[in-house]
Amino acid sequence: MPQINKPKKKRISAGDSREIRQKIYGTVRWRSLRRAHLMEHPLCERCLSFGTVTPAEDVHHVVPFMKAGDTLSRRQLAYDPENLQSLCRKCHTELH
Fold it and tell me: Is the pTM of this model over 0.85?
């Protein structure tokens, strides 16, 4: 039985990764989505799960959009409201 060669995923360099992230984070669409998410979820969702009330400062992608293999999938993950989580700075740092 012949083997099918899958195309290898192209690795993204650190510099390219930073540039791709900034292209998303620099958009009006992201800033609006982030602001709306924090207005709707003003408390750190992780702290709340532990019974602590802490204001959220950051919006975290539950599934990192940089893990997606192509531009369209990256954008879908980046702008999906269901993929976002409000976090305080401490919790966000711990997750990363």
Answer: no
